[in-house]
Each structure stands twice: as C-alpha cells, then as structure tokens.
Specification:
- There is one protein chain.
- The protein has 102 residues and is an all-beta fold.
- The protein has one domain: Jelly Rolls (Sandwich), CATH 2.60.120.10.
- It has no helices and six strands.
- Strands 1, 2, 3, 4, 5 and 6 form a six-stranded antiparallel β-sheet that branches.
- InterPro entries: Cupin_2, RmlC-like_jellyroll, RmlC_Cupin_sf.
Length: 102
C-alpha cells in the first residue's frame, strides 16, 4: 500500500505528524514570520531538518545557523534546539532514535 500526499495536506501547526507511529518521528514544521520555538531537546535522537521554503535561524546550544530553502541540517537531539523563522517557513524534520536513550 502506498499513501501519497502533499506537504500542504499536513495542516496542523506548528507540527504536523507524517506517520501515526512516531518511530522514526517525522513532522512538517510550519512557522509564521518571526515565530520562535522555545529551546528544547529531543534526547536519544539524530535529527534531520530539511527547510522546504522560507528562511530560518537555527540555534543549537549557543551556536546560530542561517538556513535557506533547500538546506538540510543534521544534528543531535541532545543539543538545545530553537528554530526562529525570519520569514514564513516550512520544513520537514526526521527524528531517528539513536538507540542510546530511545
């Protein structure tokens, strides 16, 4: 069985789950311009963030990274994460268990 959808069909904000089962957790992140997600962690995971559209400032611990549409960031969920949308932005994030704390 194949389930075909579009990124726009994932309507919940800021996080829309792609799969019912959350391993690996896959979400669509939709942020309005100037919206920030507070610092948080996802221990025991490796994260891939693919910015589909917009521009994000991604804070990981005390480091800031500027992401543009098409950029792919890979990082540990053990880091403190806080994305900030410079402009309206949409991304897909995959949280893969590392097996250490998952």
């Amino acid at each position: 069985m194949v389930d075909i959808t579009t990124i726009d069909d994932l309507e919940e904000t800021p996080h829309a789950e792609v799969f019912e089962r959350r391993e690996p957790r896959t979400v669509r992140l939709q942020l309005a311009a100037e919206q920030r997600i507070p610092r948080h962690q996802h221990p025991g995971t490796s994260i891939v963030l693919h910015l589909l559209e917009g521009q994000l400032e991604l804070t990981l611990d005390d480091e800031e990274y500027s992401l543009s549409a098409g950029d792919l960031a890979r990082f540990s969920g053990d880091r403190e994460i806080s994305p900030y949308a410079i402009e309206e932005s949409s991304a897909v994030l995959i949280f893969a268990p590392t097996g250490e704390d998952a």
